[in-house]
Design goal:
A two-stranded antiparallel ribbon has the order 1-2. A hairpin with a 7-residue loop joins strand 1 (about 35) and strand 2 (about 45-50). Helix content is about 55%, strand content about 5%. By secondary structure, the chain is mostly helical. It folds into 2 domains: about 1-30; about 30-115, Cytochrome C3, CATH 3.90.10.
Length: about 120
């Protein structure tokens, strides 16, 4: 009898913690599916955000450098905490090049494939 109650208790614990984890995932704000980044004078950069959440796997791949906020790259560049083209070089192009070299699906590395003149 005692062990049965113990067993039920463990089952309950597992179920509730699994539920908590599921809730957490559902609550994690994924942000916009598509974001237009300010690309300076050579044109803005359309960025498929959710596609990258799938392909990069980890939010930290990008958000270790800047928080999960709209327009944050622009404000960090204004205050000098990010250099111009730092995100572009250290993240966008660098990851695309790495994947290209490894023969994996990759994004563009040419200027005009990212920067769109309107
Ligand atoms: C490949 C890079 C990359 C990855 C991976 C990534 N993000 Fe982002 N995220 C960005 C960029 C770029 C912005 C826009 C920043 C700006 O507007 O200056 C952004 C903005 C956001 C924003 C705020 C803007 C909005 O749409 O509300 C949220 C929230 C966010 N990301 C959540 C996440 C979460 C959660 C993950 C992981 C599941 C993730 N991101 C993975 C690059 C990425
Ligand atoms: C994979 C996409 C991508 C490619 C390829 C790319 N860029 Fe960018 N570029 C960005 C993003 C995103 C930003 C904004 C973030 C930043 O400044 O790091 C940017 C910003 C810039 C800026 C503005 C910086 C500022 O703050 O004024 C210039 C200028 C620029 N890129 C030029 C180029 C040139 C020239 C090339 C080709 C040699 C190029 N980019 C290739 C994505 C790209
Ligand atoms: C951690 C790796 C990684 C980073 C960082 C990254 N990308 Fe990508 N990107 C990819 C991969 C992988 C693909 C190809 C996805 C696919 O085809 O399924 C891709 C595809 C793309 C595409 C093409 C989408 C399409 O529909 O074909 C664009 C545009 C793009 N990335 C822009 C950017 C910009 C702008 C940044 C920086 C803000 C960036 N990427 C940062 C890995 C990355």
């Amino acid at each position: 009898m005692r062990s049965r109650i113990g067993f039920l208790f463990i089952v309950l614990l597992v179920v509730t913690s699994a539920y908590a984890v599921a809730q957490q995932d559902a609550a994690a704000p994924a942000g916009a599916a598509k974001i237009t980044l300010d690309g300076g004078f050579i044109g803005n950069v359309p960025f498929p955000h959710h596609l990258h959440q799938k392909s990069a796997g980890d939010c930290k791949a990008c958000h270790q450098l800047y928080p999960q906020e709209k327009g944050v790259i622009g404000s960090l560049k204004e205050t000098g905490k990010l250099k111009k083209q730092q995100v572009m070089n250290s993240q966008c192009i660098s990851c695309h090049k790495e994947n290209q070299t490894a023969g994996k699906p990759a994004g563009p590395t040419q200027c005009n494939k990212c920067h769109q003149r309107s």
